UniProtKB/TrEMBL annotation:
<dbReference type="InterPro" id="IPR012337">
    <property type="entry name" value="RNaseH-like_sf"/>
</dbReference>
<dbReference type="GO" id="GO:0015074">
    <property type="term" value="P:DNA integration"/>
</dbReference>
<dbReference type="Pfam" id="PF17921">
    <property type="entry name" value="Integrase_H2C2"/>
</dbReference>
<dbReference type="InterPro" id="IPR041588">
    <property type="entry name" value="Integrase_H2C2"/>
</dbReference>
<dbReference type="Pfam" id="PF13456">
    <property type="entry name" value="RVT_3"/>
</dbReference>
<dbReference type="InterPro" id="IPR002156">
    <property type="entry name" value="RNaseH_domain"/>
</dbReference>
<dbReference type="InterPro" id="IPR001584">
    <property type="entry name" value="Integrase_cat-core"/>
</dbReference>
<feature type="domain" description="RNase H type-1">
    <location>
        <begin position="248"/>
        <end position="377"/>
    </location>
</feature>
<dbReference type="GO" id="GO:0003676">
    <property type="term" value="F:nucleic acid binding"/>
</dbReference>
<dbReference type="GO" id="GO:0004523">
    <property type="term" value="F:RNA-DNA hybrid ribonuclease activity"/>
</dbReference>
<dbReference type="Pfam" id="PF17919">
    <property type="entry name" value="RT_RNaseH_2"/>
</dbReference>
<dbReference type="Pfam" id="PF00665">
    <property type="entry name" value="rve"/>
</dbReference>
<feature type="domain" description="Integrase catalytic">
    <location>
        <begin position="532"/>
        <end position="693"/>
    </location>
</feature>
<protein>
    <submittedName>
        <fullName>Uncharacterized protein</fullName>
    </submittedName>
</protein>
<dbReference type="InterPro" id="IPR043502">
    <property type="entry name" value="DNA/RNA_pol_sf"/>
</dbReference>
<dbReference type="InterPro" id="IPR036397">
    <property type="entry name" value="RNaseH_sf"/>
</dbReference>
<dbReference type="InterPro" id="IPR043128">
    <property type="entry name" value="Rev_trsase/Diguanyl_cyclase"/>
</dbReference>
Length: 763
C-alpha cells in the first residue's frame, strides 16, 4: 500500500500471519511460508527467519515435528510482523546504500535510502543457498549476495548510484587476477552498474540496526588472522625470534650462504616451497667481494628468486651474524657499501606480506654452504643440474636507466580507477571508465585485459604496439602477412590495444616489401567455385614450382601439395624432379602423415603422367586426376598456394636468392595464419563444407587440421563488442549461432549437397 508516508505492507496480510496458530500439519507450514513470501520485501532476512520451517518440511509427507527452534522462530516472526517497517521510495538522483548479510544457509541484503540524517529501508532481499552455493567460500557468498540483489533490484541499480557498505575486501576480491571464473563473471555482470564500495560506518536507523543485529558477515577466524608467533627454525633446540607470519598461508623458506677463496667468490641459496620442493641456486662473482658482501649478494639473489616465484611470505636462515642483525635493525651499518646493501635488502623485503630472518649455525646451513663452495670453485666442477648465475658487478651498482616520458595513453584512466578509484570529472566519461574497468585487471603493475575464455592479454601503448607489429610482421617467423592475419597473430601472442586492427592495416600499407611485391590485379575476377572436397585430406592438389635460383645442394625446384578442404600445404625443395622423387614426397609428406587420400589432382607433366606414378597411386587405391590442358583453374587451389609461396619468398629474400630452400619451412607458417575465407568458427573440419556457401572463413588451416574446439575463437576478436554474460544467457542467439548448432549433421548430408561443378578436374 502506497501512501504519503511511503510503502507499507497490507494490514490484512499481516493480520493473517498474526492470527495463525501453531502449525500442526504440512499444509499449515506451507500456508505460513506462502503468507511470508507475499511480504518478503518487508521482512528482514526472510529466508533465515523461515529456515526452521523449511527443516520441518524435509523428509515428511503427513506429520511434522514441531521443535523448540520452530516455536521460537514462529514467535519472533509474529513479533516482527507486528512492527513491520515502512519502506521508503527513492527519488531521482538519490544515492542508495546496500548492506549485505551472509549466513550458513542464505544470503540477504537491504537497500537503504538516507533522508533527514536517518536511514530508511527501500527493499529487502533474501535467497536460500542451494547445493554448490552452500559450499562457496564466505567472501564469494558475500559477492553472490550482491549479485542476487542486483538481479532482483535491477531498476534501482540502473537508475541510482549504489554504495556497498561492508568491512570485507569485496572490491579487491572481484578485481584480483587469481579469482575463480565465477567471480570474474560476476564482476563483469556488476560492471554495468554504478557501484562504489565503502567501509561500513555508524548506523542511523532502527530498521538497519535490526538487520545488522544478527549480521553474520563472514569474519576471519582466529586461525586466519595475522598472529605473532615464533618462526619455526630448522631444529627444535634453537631459540626462535618473533615475526608476524600468517601460518595458514603458504610459507617459503630460504637458506643462504657465501664462500670466498683463492679460486674466486661465490654464494649458494636453497629456496624451499610450501610443497617442500627445494630450488638450488648458485652464484659466481666476476668481481672481488668480501665475505659480508657475498652474504648480502646471496640474500638479495634469494629474495629476487622468491619474488619471481610469487612468494607472499618468507622466512630466511643465514649463518652471518652481521647480515641478520643489520636486517633486524639490531646493528647499524656504518660502512657505505654495507649501507647500500642494507637499503637494497630492506627494499626487497617490503615486497613480501610477511618475513622473518634468523641466524643459524653453519652446521644447519650445510646445503647452501655446499652450493656456495661449489660456485666458488672452478667452472669445470659445476654440476649441470644446478642453476648458476654469473654476477658481473655488485647488486648495489644498478645500471643506468634513461627514463622515457610517455604521453597520456588510453590505459591511464583505467589504471587510475583500478588503483586509486580515481574517476574523470565528466559523469558520462566516469561511467564509461567504470564499465570498461570491469574487463581489465592489474598484474605486477601491468594492465591486462581478460575475456570469457580467460587468456589475459597484456595491454600496450601505441608505441609498444608498433614494435610488436614490426617484430611479428618482419621478424624471424614473419611472413609479411596481411593486416587481419597480423592483428590476430598479435592477439595470439598475448597483446592488446584498442587500435590493434587499424594499426595493423596502416603498418602493412607502409611496409616496403609488401608494396614492392603486392598483387597487381590485371584480370577480371571470376565467380567462386563450389567446394568439391567433402572432408579433410580427401583430395590433394600437386604441382611444381620451377625454375628457382639454384640453392644449397643444387636444388632449384619445389614440389607443393595442398589439401582442398583445410588448405593445409606441404612443400619440399628438390634437385631433380623425377617420378621417384615425386613418389617419395607423396608417400612421406601426405600418406604417412595424413593417411591415404581419395584423389590427387595434378597437371599433365611427365613427372606425374607416367606409368610408375600411376602404378603407385593404383596400389594405394588413389584416384589420379589430371587438370585440363592450358587451364590452370582446374587445379586452382595449388596454383594459389604457389603464388603465396613465391610472393612470401620474394619478401623474405634480399640479394641472396639461393637461400630460398632454408626459408621454405618458414614460408609454410602461413598455415597457422588467420585467413579471410570464412567468418564463422567451426568445431570440426567437416563443418566447413556447410559454412562455405555462406561466405569466407577466418580460421587458419592449422585449426582445421587439428580439429580442436574453436568455440572461444570469436571471443578474441577485438573488433566485435561482446555482450555481458547475463545478456548472453537471456538474449536470443543470432542466425550464425543457430547455424552452428545445425552443423552437427552427418557428413553424408554434406556430400549430398556438394554437387560437382563445371570446373571439376577431368580424369
Amino acid at each position: 500500500m502506497i501512501s504519503q508516508r511511503g510503502i507499507e505492507a497490507n494490514p490484512e496480510k499481516i493480520q493473517a500471519i498474526l492470527d495463525m496458530t501453531i502449525p500442526r500439519t504440512v499444509k499449515d507450514i506451507q500456508s505460513l511460508t506462502g503468507r511470508v513470501a507475499a511480504l518478503t520485501r518487508f521482512i528482514s532476512k526472510a529466508t533465515d527467519r523461515c529456515a526452521p520451517f523449511f527443516k520441518a518440511l524435509k523428509g515428511t509427507k503427513r506429520n511434522i515435528t514441531w521443535t523448540a527452534e520452530c516455536g521460537t522462530a514462529f514467535s519472533e516472526l509474529k513479533e516482527y510482523m507486528g512492527r513491520a517497517p515502512l519502506l521508503s521510495t527513492p527519488e531521482h538522483g538519490d544515492i542508495l546504500v546496500i548492506y549485505l548479510s551472509v549466513s550458513a544457509s542464505a544470503v540477504s541484503s537491504v537497500l537503504i535510502r538516507s533522508r533527514d540524517n536517518a536511514e530508511h529501508p527501500v527493499h529487502y532481499v533474501s535467497k536460500a543457498l542451494q547445493d554448490a552455493e552452500v559450499r562457496y567460500p564466505d567472501i564469494e557468498k558475500l559477492a553472490f549476495s550482491l549479485v542476487v540483489s542486483a538481479r532482483r533490484l535491477r531498476p534501482y541499480f540502473q537508475a541510482h548510484t549504489i554504495h556497498v557498505l561492508t568491512n570485507q575486501p569485496l572490491r579487491q576480491v572481484l578485481q584480483k587476477p587469481e579469482t575463480s571464473g565465477r567471480l570474474v563473471k560476476w564482476a563483469i555482470e556488476l560492471g554495468e552498474f554504478d557501484i562504489h564500495y565503502k567501509p561500513r560506518s555508524a548506523i542511523r536507523g532502527q530498521a538497519v540496526a535490526d538487520f545488522l543485529s544478527e549480521f553474520t558477515e563472514p569474519q576471519a577466524s582466529a586461525a586466519t588472522q595475522l598472529i605473532t608467533k615464533p618462526t619455526p627454525s630448522p631444529s627444535q633446540d634453537q631459540t626462535p625470534i618473533n615475526s608476524t607470519l600468517d601460518l595458514t598461508q603458504p610459507l617459503w623458506t630460504l637458506f643462504v650462504d657465501r664462500s670466498s677463496n683463492a679460486q674466486g667468490c661465490g654464494a649458494g641459496l636453497v629456496l624451499v616451497s610450501p610443497d617442500k620442493v627445494a630450488l638450488e641456486y648458485a652464484l659466481r662473482f666476476k668481481f672481488q667481494a668480501s665475505n659480508n658482501q657475498a652474504e648480502y649478494e646471496a640474500l638479495l639473489a634469494g629474495l629476487r628468486l622468491a619474488k619471481e616465484m610469487d612468494a607472499r611470505q618468507i622466512q630466511i636462515f643465514s649463518d652471518s651474524q652481521l647480515v641478520v642483525h643489520q636486517v633486524n635493525q639490531d646493528f647499524t651499518a656504518k660502512d657505505a657499501s654495507m649501507t647500500a646493501y642494507l637499503q637494497h635488502a630492506r627494499h626487497l623485503l617490503t615486497t613480501f606480506h610477511a618475513h622473518s630472518i634468523k641466524q643459524v649455525p653453519r652446521s644447519e646451513n650445510s646445503h647452501a654452504n655446499a652450493l656456495a663452495r661449489l660456485a666458488s670453485a672452478l667452472e669445470q666442477g659445476m654440476g649441470r643440474h644446478i642453476h648458476i648465475e654469473f654476477l658481473a658487478q655488485p647488486s648495489t651498482q644498478a645500471p643506468l636507466i634513461c627514463t622515457i616520458d610517455h604521453s597520456p595513453t588510453w590505459m591511464d584512466p583505467i589504471l587510475q580507477f583500478l588503483q586509486n578509484q580515481t574517476q574523470p570529472a565528466n559523469p558520462a566519461e566516469a561511467r564509461r571508465v567504470r564499465h570498461r574497468s570491469a574487463r581489465y585487471l592489474i598484474i605486477n603493475g601491468s594492465l591486462y585485459k581478460r575475456g570469457f575464455s580467460l587468456p589475459y592479454l597484456r595491454c600496450l601503448t601505441p608505441e609498444e604496439g608498433h614494435y610488436v607489429l614490426r617484430e611479428i610482421h618482419e621478424g624471424i617467423c614473419g611472413n609479411h602477412s596481411g593486416a587481419r592475419s597480423l592483428a590476430h597473430k598479435a592477439i595470439r601472442q598475448g597483446y592488446f590495444w584498442p587500435s590493434l586492427h587499424t594499426d595493423a592495416e596502416a603498418f602493412t600499407q607502409k611496409c616496403d616489401k609488401c608494396q614492392r611485391f603486392a598483387n597487381i590485379p590485371q584480370l577480371l575476377a571470376e565467380p567462386l567455385t563450389a567446394m568439391v572436397s567433402p572432408w579433410p585430406f580427401a583430395q590433394w592438389g600437386l604441382d611444381l614450382i620451377r625454375p628457382m635460383p639454384e640453392g644449397k645442394g643444387q636444388v632449384k625446384y619445389a614440389v607443393v601439395a595442398v589439401d582442398y578442404f583445410t588448405k593445409w600445404a606441404e612443400a619440399e625443395a628438390l634437385a631433380t624432379i623425377t617420378a621417384a622423387r615425386i613418389e617419395s614426397f607423396v608417400w612421406q609428406s601426405i600418406v604417412c602423415r595424413f593417411g591415404i587420400p581419395n584423389s590427387i589432382v595434378t597437371d599433365n607433366g611427365r613427372q606425374f603422367d607416367n606409368a610408375k606414378f600411376k602404378q603407385f597411386c593404383s596400389n594405394l587405391k588413389i584416384r589420379l586426376c589430371f587438370a585440363s590442358p592450358a587451364h590452370p583453374q582446374s587445379n586452382g587451389q595449388v596454383e594459389a598456394v604457389n603464388k603465396i609461396i613465391k610472393k612470401t619468398l620474394k619478401k623474405k629474400l634480399d640479394k641472396a636468392k639461393g637461400c630460398w630452400p632454408e626459408l621454405l619451412p618458414e614460408v609454410l607458417c602461413y598455415c597457422i595464419a588467420r585467413h579471410s575465407l570464412l567468418k564463422l568458427p567451426c568445431r570440426r573440419p567437416s563443418q566447413l563444407a556447410k559454412v562455405a556457401s555462406r561466405g569466407k572463413t577466418q580460421l587458419p588451416p592449422s585449426l582445421l587440421l587439428k580439429g580442436k574446439d574453436q568455440s572461444a575463437a570469436p571471443l578474441l576478436d577485438t573488433s566485435t563488442t561482446l555482450p555481458s554474460p547475463s545478456l548472453c544467457r537471456t538474449a536470443r542467439p543470432p542466425a550464425e549461432l543457430q547455424l552452428l548448432r545445425r552443423l552437427a549433421e552427418p557428413t553424408a548430408a554434406i556430400i549430398h549437397k556438394n554437387k560437382p561443378s563445371c570446373s571439376e578436374p577431368t580424369k
